[in-house]
Design a protein that fits this description.
Elements: H1 3-13, E1 30-37, H2 44-47, E2 49-54, E3 62-71, H3 75-81, H4 87-93, E4 100-101, E5 107-114, E6 126-129, E7 132-133, H5 139-142, E8 154-155, E9 168-172, E10 176-178, H6 185-190, H7 192-203, E11 215-218, H8 224-235, E12 239-244, H9 250-255, E13 260-263, H10 279-299, E14 307-310, H11 317-323, E15 329-332, H12 345-350, E16 354-357, H13 363-374, E17 382-386, H14 391-399, E18 407-411
Parallel strand pairs: 11-12, 11-14, 12-13, 14-15, 15-16, 17-18
Antiparallel strand pairs: 1-2, 1-4, 3-5, 3-9, 3-18, 5-6, 6-10, 7-8
The structure holds NADP nicotinamide-adenine-dinucleotide phosphate.
Length: about 425
Amino acid sequence: MDSNNTSNTSQAEKIYELGEKPPLGLVPENMHAFCVRQDRFGEPKDAWQREILPVPNIGPQDVLVYTMATGINYNNVWAALGYPVDVIADRQKKGEPEDFHAGGSDCAGIVWAVGSEVRNVTVGDEVVVHSGWWAPDDPWVLSGKDPMLAPSARIWGYQTNYGSYCQFTRAQSHQCQVKPPHLTWEQAACYMLCASTAYRMLMGWSPNIVEDGDVVLVWGAAGGLGSLALQIVTAQGGKAVAVVSDEEKRQFCLDKGAVGVINRNEFDHWGPMPDTTSKEWGAWMKGARAFGKAIWDAVGERKNPKIVFEHPGESTLPTSGFVCDLGGMIVICAGTTGYNVTLDLRYHWMMQKRFQGSHLANDQQATALNELVASGKVDPCLSDTYSFDEIGHAHQLMHENKHPYGNMACLVNATQTGLGAK
Ligand SMILES: NC(=O)c1ccc[n+]([C@@H]2O[C@H](COP(=O)([O-])OP(=O)(O)OC[C@H]3O[C@@H](n4cnc5c(N)ncnc54)[C@H](OP(=O)(O)O)[C@@H]3O)[C@@H](O)[C@H]2O)c1
């Protein structure tokens, strides 16, 4: 072994502190990472703990990215709770050995190693990672159909291990998008998961896509998904009507392009729709009609939403179904308030509405969205930036709906915020 190899070996054995960059391309054996274990499932602030983990090996189509900053997403609140899915047990059933979940589904960083078949990126490239993951040999994927509909599709950093809460994260090379150069590491890290999900919801389900002048109702409009949806609707020429629960969020939504804002606390008909033969149903219908009128007031004319951008689910879906326009679409990517939904089917079939599930995004959708960000038409809506050791805290804020508007980020290897941070 020559002296150069000896020094590389000892460098590889060393654990690099956050921000202590190894020579470009040198991959250490271990790293700092935040992970969840089954015996601490529960409150995110306790479930997420810093540990030292091995740096993962990569396959021929994978990349290893030196994570500069990570976004924080709701999926890893669910991972911390171990509900509705125990992601560790789920992966172990599929044959993966790890007894921890080192999550994180939003990353901005530097490509540090590439597999033998990778052609689209090289070591040193600055990238943003989108979280659509699928098996490269899945026959559905190989057939060229939408890979997000493939049986093997997973959410990277939630259903896969070694996500962006690791100093070195493992991803598939197709997940890499060019980091918009005008963004800081923390801005670049915070938007991709929510923004690409919102893009697919609004532009992926033809013919129900946002067109010039279309009204779109956006629930949770100051949240991660909502703040990006408002801007995507506006960029496509649509009229976004924002729903919030707090007057303080009103101006934020207007600044992000909403034509009007509705405070849901002015209504009380939320939750599952009562039986249509009951007395309570009349009161429910009165509330739903008043909410529909509030949409017209926000738009300034009697126009119903062509698209309802849904994610609260159980609590709001009956209203979403009622206010959706003739031939319109309720598109949903979550059921944050519950999964047992009620819908007045009479309105649904007579007015030929569409109820569409949607999940994350494919490569083309992530690229189209990234171009909107790169051109400045969509702002990542970075709210606050936290340190690496505040990863659990940031999830706890989200769990309690106490997080700041927009999208949060945590620094990983970046040691300072702002442009030019190394
Ligand atoms: N399937 C996918 O690909 C995908 C991708 C991204 C996110 N998601 C899921 O989507 C959901 C939202 O994510 P997010 O990042 O936007 O979270 P977020 O930043 O917490 O925003 C959610 C918003 O929902 C609103 N909300 C809370 N309770 C509500 C209720 N009872 N009725 C109506 N609105 C309510 C809140 O706004 P107000 O209190 O102001 O109304 C909150 O700001 C999560 O469950 C997440 O896991 C799914």
